Automatic annotation (TrEMBL):
UniProt organism field: Acidithiobacillus ferrianus
Designated name of the protein: Methyltransferase domain-containing protein
UniProt keyword annotations, A-Z: Methyltransferase, Transferase
Gene3D superfamilies according to UniProt: Vaccinia Virus protein VP39 (3.40.50.150)
Molecular function terms, GO-annotated: methyltransferase activity
InterPro entries attached to this UniProt entry: SAM-dependent_MTases_sf
């Protein structure tokens, strides 16, 4: 009938409500506070009273990057140096957050056998520097020439190559291999072969550490598609299974960067943390 409203609500059966009076009556059956959400959805209104429009200044992203890296004339800006600048757009305090995140992994890395550690997609070498400061001998590989130059200027051992070619050409066996915020940049058809090579190049008892965005978090997709080089998000269940498929054992999921918007999220770590990482080992002898 014209003017009827169809409610689809877990607390109601699907039914046709022919008038707002009946809608109001039906809402009384809903737990306290829940009606606000459904009224907002039905009538297209915000739960809270807000002005029709809102304006605020855009963040000075490029200026932040220039302060860290240096200025670059517009005529010299191209795809080769875009990502170096894009990776430095964050506000002050980001570096300390990175170190806090890295410190969450340190107890796991302390369990690795003695040997060389490799950071794939190392960028400017932040994680390599952290590992070296904590007495873990580390090197890195990245395809971005600008990022590799930044890392080498810091005195870090980094080479410019693809992860696959570097691993195939290297004669080393690594104690650990990391991909921090890297797997989402890789084409899905390359992920499985790369995990296979990583497993092969680890020494017995070595481990892989893979960090990415937790897509169960409410803000995950906004953040994910902010980066134009992201390919596809990787759910934790899929990543764990893929690692197990390639022979890794004792997988641990490490959630970091808490950002909960509700009590229910705070009670569920799989939704309350913005990032997750999987630490998994190659079986020892």
């Amino acid at each position: 009938m014209p003017g009827e409203i169809i409610l689809q609500n877990p607390f109601w059966s699907h039914e046709v409500i022919p008038s707002r009076k009946q809608l109001k009556s039906a809402l009384h059956k809903t737990p306290f506070f829940k009606p606000l959400k459904y009224i907002a959805a039905i009538f297209g209104r915000s739960t809270y009273p807000l002005p029709f429009s809102h304006i605020e200044p855009a963040a000075p992203f490029l200026n932040r990057a220039i302060a860290r890296i240096g200025n670059l004339p517009i005529t010299e800006r191209n795809t080769n140096n875009f990502y170096s600048y894009f990776s430095e757009i964050w506000d002050q305090g980001y570096e300390s957050e990175l170190n806090e995140q890295y410190s969450s992994y340190l107890p796991f890395l302390r369990t690795l056998p003695e040997g060389q550690f490799l950071d794939i997609g190392c960028g400017a070498g932040e994680f390599i520097y952290y590992l070296n400061q904590n007495h873990i001998c580390a090197e890195g590989v990245d395809q971005d020439t600008q990022e590799v130059e930044r890392a080498t200027r810091r005195g870090l051992s980094v080479c410019c190559a693809s992860a696959e070619s570097h691993l195939r050409e290297s004669r080393k066996k690594y104690s650990g291999i990391s991909l921090l915020e890297v797997i989402e940049h890789i084409s899905p058809d390359i992920v499985s072969p790369l995990l296979s090579i990583i497993f092969e190049k680890l020494m017995p008892g070595g481990a892989v550490l893979i960090e990415t965005i937790n897509i169960k978090h409410p803000l995950a997709f906004h953040s994910f598609y902010t980066d134009p080089t992201h390919q596809r998000p990787v759910p934790s269940d899929l990543l764990v299974f893929m690692l197990q498929w390639h022979g890794f054992v004792d997988a641990q999921v490490i959630y970091t960067n808490p950002l909960a918007f509700s009590l229910s999220e705070a009670k569920d770590p799989t939704r309350a943390y913005f990032n997750y990482a999987v630490f998994a080992k190659k079986p020892g002898h």
